[in-house]
Amino acid sequence: MVLKRIAFGLLILGIVVWAVFPFAWAVITSLKVGSALFTVEAWPSQPSLANYTAIFNEQPFGRNILNSLLAAASVVALSLGLAVLAAYALGRVGFRGRGLLLFVVLGVSMFPQVAVLSGLFELVRWLGLYNRIGSLMLSYLIFTLPFTVWVLTTFMRELPKELEEAAMVDGAGPFVIVTRVFLPLMGPALAATGLLAFIAAWNEFLFALTFTLTDDARTVPVAIALMSGASQYELPWGRIMAASVVVTVPLIGLVLLFQRRIVSGLTAGAVKG
């Protein structure tokens, strides 16, 4: 029994180290400048915030963060709003071909981004959205909306049927049932799917690289990838790591903020006996 506990503890420790070490190394590297970047040490002997100031002074990195935040937040709001309505239709309304439609929705999300890139580029250019945040909002819905629809449909099916029947007896229509009865119970599901959709939109690279051109319109992943040093042969590792730390902190904050909401009881207290 003791050996099992020790082995389990070592396994958990290994998982924690495996998950935390890359971020910790990025933080340590971001505090180094010059030749110190190539020295291996647990903590910099002379920590400096020069890399953090450089990424904001030498390029519009603050604007890049704002672009990513605006695009990701807008996509999450649109995805959840549309997905809740679609989930009610697919999860609570019986009609022929419902299962096939669900598989089609899931199949759309499996297409590689590069397969739809050329057609989507033509659509973006025709709509006049090239080099604008609107192009990212439109393109990000391709992979966030199918995922949110699928997850929320599964959750919607598990909600008690008695709630819907009681609302219908009181004269409530489908829209009222969704917004007044089911939506308050879907907080944990909305938090979980919204967080995953936000992370996917925040980290997206290919569409952001293709549909934006100027520095002011780029998102964070593209801005980091295009960082350059004093010459074409230099990679600014310190600034890249500093930028990576800056954009990772909001995601950690979101996870901590919605942690209780995600793990809370999904329908606790919904039906009283």
TrEMBL record:
PROSITE patterns: ABC_TM1. InterPro entries: BP-dep_ABC_trans_perm (IPR050901), MetI-like (IPR000515), MetI-like_sf (IPR035906). Its main location: membrane. It is found in: Cell membrane. CDD domains: TM_PBP2 (cd06261). It is a multi-pass membrane protein. The chain crosses the membrane at residues 7-28, 65-88, 100-121, 133-156, 177-202, 237-258. Residues 65-258 form the ABC transmembrane type-1 domain. This is Carbohydrate ABC transporter permease. It comes from Azospirillum isscasi. The lineage of its organism: Bacteria, Pseudomonadati, Pseudomonadota, Alphaproteobacteria, Rhodospirillales.
